[in-house]
Design goal:
The complex is a heterodimer. Helix content of chain A is 34%, strand content 29%. In chain A, a hairpin with a 5-residue loop joins β9 and β10. The radius of gyration of chain A is 28 Å and the shape is rod-shaped. By secondary structure, chain B is of the alpha+beta class. Chain B has 1 helix and 10 strands, in the order αββββββββββ. The chains are: A alpha+beta, B alpha+beta. The interface between A and B is large, with 48 and 50 residues.
Amino acid sequence: MGFSVSASTAIIFAGLFLAFGMLYPAVSNSYERVQDAEFDRDDAQLDRQNTAIEITELTQDKITVTNTGSTSLTVSTIDLLINNTYQDREPTLRSVEGNSATDLWLPGERLTISFESEIVSGDRVTVATEHGLRVSQEFL
Amino acid sequence: MAGVSVSHLIIFTASLVVAAGVAGTLTTGVDRISGSIEDGSIDVSQQVRTDITVVSDPGYTYNTTENVTIHIRNTGSQGIALQASSFDIIFNGVYQSPIESVDSVTEPGSATWRPGEVVVLDLGVTPEDGDNRLFVTVNRDEEKFEFRAS
């Protein structure tokens, strides 16, 4: 009777330690994984809050948009739609302040996107940035 | 004396077996729980990372004779499998299934919708005259798109 109590208590404690050793890494890994995802999402939200663009000029053959926010944007990921038809991302048609080699669109700079074919009155042009921020204007 | 020690031995062994059984059940149960905690966290982190945005122009008046197409951009931090079953579409209150087609416009033919890529979704139905409302849900991220058609 005496020794069996100690022995079975020892076995049960050993089982508890083993169980804790399995549970703790699983819980901490899971928590870290979700936290990392939340950090990434919050960073993207902050970037989105700091992003703002404005159409300054729209002509028959090009559109000029100014980065009025406080984040830098990437020229090659800007989307252009004319009459809700997606236009291919053509880097040769895009230039920032006259420079078509740069991929950075910094705050305060103007991006000019030339159209492959001229637009006519009544056409709507939409520009969307990497966080989904979108501006549209109708050509009069 | 010998009979007493044999019965002691039997009871001793029985108590050890019971203790081992308890410990084994405990560790098996905890193993299952930790496995499902990990799986659940993978699901949650994928849902948190998923973010889509509609880039189509809502001010554009759609044509009632053409199928509704919508451009969506992946603004999240992970890729999404590019297949019709990844999207849940409700158009004017009706669940759309199957969708006509979904394809990437920035990387045609790709099977993955990477962050920053734009896809075009063709619903296979024409819009109604007047106001229309479209809900797109991917991995629990729901986006609303309202427009007029004539």
